[in-house]
Design brief:
about 700 residues; mainly alpha; 27 helices
């Protein structure tokens, strides 16, 4: 029973069930009511609408459905009206592709609808292949729109009946990503000499990118359900858990002492091993929290992490008695232990909003059409990656159509569909998708041929059609090759219903190879990203975000720890820009247009930026109110370091050599004796010195 429960609680289960109901309803209606010839276009319309779906509440989903249907109707009508006129169709195909991709620059929701509209346009072409209707017969187009409407209504009803399901799954996914981040952090506590901790930091940065994405998805889901209303009940509890997850993220990201130095100082102690084990146990507890959120169940007791925390506490006390560490190391161990205690408390938090909590969430969606078009206008630049992808995809679709006219003008639209699916915004993603698409298509064609050979004709095709359509949605996000195989079987059976099943096998394989070839050529030669990729620009934005984050942290050493909207925005911007660098470096390393030296430079820069974010997170995790004199000294110190990062950003952007920041005046030195919590002041001093070290490390990287 447990596997069945896990299946029912998975984030993909609801999507798969909706697709199953939609496709089954279409198959039953067309079989019983008689318009069997409209089965294929109706099924394709439902699949296209499912691809356009977003995890909105029912009101947002209704607006999205109306926009989707308008886009679908316009695209299908244009395709139907122009498909018999190749010159006009070629012009509209390229222009429409460019416009739709650029519309996706407005927001993620618009991008999803625009991509699905492009897919539906090609489905309309494929439906014209599988149909025997006359050129002027618009029933196929109407069937596509009817199928899309039917799925949209099912989705709308489902959303109204389960309004919080998307929030639960987003929040559960967030805690799972935090667990993976904790495991990556635990690897840094290996008490081994000569360990490549820069490589571990890069891996941590990659996991942090996934966590930043999960935070954004959860924030969007909560904002859509709560809006500007005062949350109550479970909505308030889930919002509180989201805030707790943000605090956990900040604490996991922190670094209290350089790990190489920590490993050297504690080499003959088991403290680092105990800290690593504690983090791994907390990661397991975080996964338990995710499971409890998904099942809407209370969190069980956490005996193992608490026992491990007590062990760490006793081990630190024993070391202090037997081999007293230096002041800096002792402060770091105390702060690290406090951080671990708060981490576990955050995981155990069942979700309760404190009095006076700032519950505002920043909405990243454009609130007016003018704001949406303003975003698009900013991206209409040759250096914009979005613009370059729009040009590449439009060129690829036009080239694919030209190949289709040259080889087999009546049954070659699979070239366009392959190009559309394979041509991704980045070179590495396109290469991976190409291999998966080819492998999946070959497997699907072989399986489809075997089915047609062993089971000629009969009603068995309808349930298999439904099953393959459902399987496509079950696998498309995580196992794309398998998803391609089942959708290939789906298309073969669609052609078989029209009496051309065997005839479609050879052309489908050729079309897939041609479409993949077109996508590979355009990503390689049409405005390739590495010709304009400026890692330095993104790194400079990150350094500016670090400066703002440090200023926001320093101000709270005067007022006390408050996770208000301004602070959360500064923290999120720092993590988001660093995640952008991590994603950019990953893409750069997969491209053919960079030198080995540039790749090494990018990895060193990423490791240094990750170290800087870790020290900033430490300051943020230990915010507390200090005495007035100490708070003023902290602000002066932080302001100088922040100004150093801002100046360094411009040097990095311009490719010039930056001066070293040097040792700043420290708080304890400035006031001789701190008047507030001495450990807190020394922690600020230590982390600012480490930030200066990061500054000088980046400044010392040779510009490329």
């Amino acid at each position: 029973m447990r596997p069945l429960r896990q299946l029912a609680e998975s984030d993909r289960f609801a999507d798969v069930v909706r697709v199953f109901l939609a496709l089954t309803g279409i198959a039953a209606w067309c079989t019983l009511a008689g318009p069997v010839g409209l089965l294929v276009p109706a099924l394709l319309g439902a699949i296209a609408c499912a691809l356009a779906e977003t995890d909105d509440a029912w009101r947002g989903r209704l607006r999205g459905l109306l926009v989707t249907l308008v886009c679908f109707a316009g695209a299908a009508s244009v395709v139907k009206a122009s498909i018999g006129h190749p010159p006009l169709f070629a012009l509209l195909l390229a222009a429409g592709t460019f416009v739709l991709v650029m519309l996706g620059a407005a927001s993620g929701r618009y991008a999803t609808i625009a991509t699905a509209t492009l897919i539906l346009s090609v489905y309309t072409m494929i439906a014209s292949d599988a149909s025997t209707a006359a050129p002027g017969d618009w029933r196929g187009t109407a069937a596509i729109l009817a199928g899309a409407t039917w799925y949209g209504l099912l989705s709308l009803l489902w959303s109204a009946m389960a309004p919080q399901r998307a929030v639960r799954h987003a929040l559960a996914g967030l805690f799972e990503s935090l667990a993976a981040l904790m495991e990556a952090k635990a690897a840094l506590f290996e008490p081994v000499h000569g360990l490549d901790r820069d490589a571990l930091a890069v891996e941590f940065s990659r996991r942090n990118l996934q966590t930043v994405d999960a935070l954004a998805a959860t924030r969007a889901a909560l904002l859509d359900r709560i809006g500007r209303r005062q949350p109550r009940g479970r909505s308030a509890a889930r919002l509180a858990m989201f805030f707790a997850a943000q605090d956990i993220h900040e604490r996991v990201s922190s670094s209290h002492y350089p790990y190489d130095e920590l490993a050297t100082a504690l080499y003959h102690s088991d403290l680092m091993f105990r800290f690593g084990r504690l983090l791994r146990l907390q990661a397991s507890a975080c996964r338990e929290r995710a499971d409890a959120i998904r099942r809407v169940a209370p969190l069980g007791p956490m005996a193992l992490p608490r026992a491990a925390l007590d062990d760490v506490r006793e081990a630190i006390a024993y070391r202090r008695r037997s081999d007293p560490p230096g002041q800096a190391l002792d402060d770091a161990l105390s702060a690290l232990l406090t951080n671990m205690e708060h981490l576990l408390a955050g995981i155990e938090d069942e979700g309760s909003l404190r009095e006076g909590t700032d519950i505002a969430l920043q909405d990243s969606e454009p609130d007016t059409p003018a704001a949406a078009f303003a975003r698009i206008r900013v991206r209409l630049d040759r250096r914009s990656m979005h613009f370059r992808h729009a040009v590449r995809l439009a060129t690829g679709m036009l080239a694919g159509y030209g190949l289709m006219l040259l080889l087999h003008p009546t049954h070659g639209y699979w070239i366009l569909l392959t190009t559309l699916f394979v041509c991704q915004p980045s070179y590495g993603a396109t290469q991976r998708r190409t291999m998966q698409r080819i492998a999946g298509t070959m497997a699907g064609l072989f399986a489809g041929w075997a089915m047609l050979r062993l089971l000629p004709g009969g009603d068995w095709r309808l349930p298999v059609l439904v099953a393959t359509g459902v399987a496509f949605f079950a696998f498309r996000l995580r196992r794309y090759a398998l998803a391609t195989a089942v959708i290939t079987i789906f298309v073969l059976l669609c052609f078989d219903l029209a009496g051309a099943g065997y005839d479609a096998i050879g052309p489908r394989l050729l079309d897939t190879l041609l479409g993949a070839f077109v996508a590979t050529v355009v990503i390689r030669f049409v405005l390739p990203d590495w010709r304009v990729r400026r890692l330095e620009d993104i790194a400079a934005d990150t350094l500016h975000a670090y400066a703002r984050y440090l200023e926001a942290i320093a101000s709270q050493y005067a007022s006390g720890k408050v996770d208000d909207l301004a602070y959360r925005i500064a923290r999120r911007d720092a993590h988001a820009t660093q995640a952008a660098v991590a994603g950019n470096v990953a893409e750069l390393l997969g491209e053919p247009g960079h030198s080995r030296e540039r790749g090494e430079h990018a990895l060193r820069l990423l490791a240094a930026l990750q170290a800087g974010l870790s020290h900033l997170s430490t300051l943020g995790a230990h915010r507390q109110a200090l005495a007035v004199d100490d708070a003023n000294a902290v602000e002066r110190l932080a302001h100088r370091v922040a100004n150093g990062f801002a100046a360094l950003a411009e040097h990095v952007r311009n490719g010039t050599t930056a001066p070293l920041l040097g040792t700043p005046d420290l708080v304890v030195d400035a006031s001789m004796q701190a008047t507030g919590p001495v450990e807190a002041v020394r922690l600020v001093d230590r982390q600012c010195l480490l930030l200066v070290r990061v500054h000088d490390r980046i400044a010392g990287l040779p510009p490329i």
